[in-house]
């Protein structure tokens, strides 16, 4: 079979649910070998079982540096190369929250998973990718990176940091001629367990749907196909860019 990412070895963090699961499935379907990682063992194993071949699960807490060292070493040991990294694992935190009553503990937990996890992923993936001649990193940011998010203060701050850091990695790798690209994806409201925390009632769901000019919620696959493009060689000239996938929300 020849697919759009045939022969590539790709790590997808947070692959045990939602966007990560759909991304792992789409990448494997297009010929990649996918290493699904998640802090949730059962979710990760279920993703791998659903894919049924060309995927395996490694347990990982993306906020821990020793976990990144172990995961990347394991991938190099078993596959001999690393071509793609999808920094997808993330949390949304308490909803609705307000910065005036957010605790420092909540704030730090958010940044430790959503920002430090992405930093560590880039830091440890780049040397492995270089040894194979290059690669592509995709960081899951959010529409929250572009606007104020009064009901999700630390989440918005974390996604703004991911958007900016993506460009730092992209430019540094480009100037050093590493042949490693780094781009961010900015989903709108995607129907996953995470977004479900904002839509616990029918009224809440209708309210979230009404935010979207196209009048429907996104599906995890809508994001997965964007990741597929950025991991594939079709996007060989794309780095430091922001791919918005949101049914039109950012356009108004
Ligand atoms: N769903 C949306 O509307 C939406 C919108 C914008 C951005 N995003 C982003 O997309 C990404 C995926 O979101 P989703 O909606 O699929 O969420 P989800 O909650 O369905 O899945 C997230 C996965 O990440 C895992 N995870 C959490 N903390 C982890 C850690 N420390 N180490 C490893 N794994 C960890 C969870 O166990 C879970 O399996 C997140 O970064 C999220 O912020 C989602």
Write a brief structural summary.
The chain is of the alpha/beta class. The protein has helices at about 20-30, 40-50, 65-80, 105-130, 155-175, 195, 200-210, 220-230, and strands at about 10-15, 35-40, 55-60, 85, 135-140, 180-185, 240-245.
Structure description:
The structure is a single chain. The protein is α/β, with parallel strands linked by helices. It has one domain (9-190, 219-245): 3-Layer(aba) Sandwich (Rossmann fold), CATH 3.40.50.720. Helices cover 45% and strands 15% of the residues. It contains eight helices and seven strands, in the order E-H-E-H-E-H-E-H-E-H-E-H-H-H-E. It has helices at 18-29, 41-51, 65-79, 104-131, 153-175, 193-196, 202-210, 220-231; strands at 9-13, 33-38, 55-59, 84-87, 135-140, 180-187, 242-245. It has a seven-stranded parallel β-sheet with strand order 3-2-1-4-5-6-7, with helices on both faces. Helix 5 links the parallel strand 5 and strand 6. Helix 3 packs parallel to helix 4. It is globular. The site of nicotinamide-adenine-dinucleotide (NAD) has 30 residues, from helix 1, helix 4 and helix 6. Nicotinamide-adenine-dinucleotide (NAD) is lined by residues 13-14, 16-20, 38-40, 43, 60-63, 88-91, 113, 117, 140, 142, 187, 189-190, 192-195.
């Amino acid at each position: 079979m020849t697919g759009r990412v045939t022969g590539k070895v790709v790590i997808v963090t947070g692959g045990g649910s939602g966007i990560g699961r759909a991304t792992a499935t789409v990448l494997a379907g297009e010929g990649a070998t996918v290493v699904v990682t998640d802090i949730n063992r059962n979710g990760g194993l279920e993703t791998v079982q659903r894919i049924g071949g060309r995927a395996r699960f490694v347990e990982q807490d993306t906020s821990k540096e020793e976990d990144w060292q172990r995961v990347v070493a394991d991938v190099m040991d078993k596959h001999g190369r690393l071509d793609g990294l999808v920094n997808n694992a993330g949390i949304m935190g308490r909803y609705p929250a307000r910065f005036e009553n957010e605790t420092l503990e909540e704030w730090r937990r958010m940044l430790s998973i959503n920002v430090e996890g992405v930093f560590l992923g880039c830091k440890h993936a780049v040397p492995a990718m270089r040894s194979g001649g290059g690669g592509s990193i995709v960081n899951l940011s959010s529409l929250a990176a572009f606007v104020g998010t009064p009901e999700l203060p630390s989440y918005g701050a974390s996604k703004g940091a991911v958007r900016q850091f993506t460009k730092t990695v992209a430019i540094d790798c480009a100037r050093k001629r590493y042949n490693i690209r780094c781009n961010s994806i900015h989903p709108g409201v995607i129907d996953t367990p995470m977004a479900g925390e904002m839509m616990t009632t029918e009224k809440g769901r209708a309210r979230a749907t009404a935010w979207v000019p196209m009048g429907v919620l996104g599906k995890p696959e809508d994001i997965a196909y964007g990741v597929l493009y950025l991991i594939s060689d079709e996007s060989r000239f794309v780095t430091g860019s922001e791919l918005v996938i949101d049914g039109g929300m950012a356009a108004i």
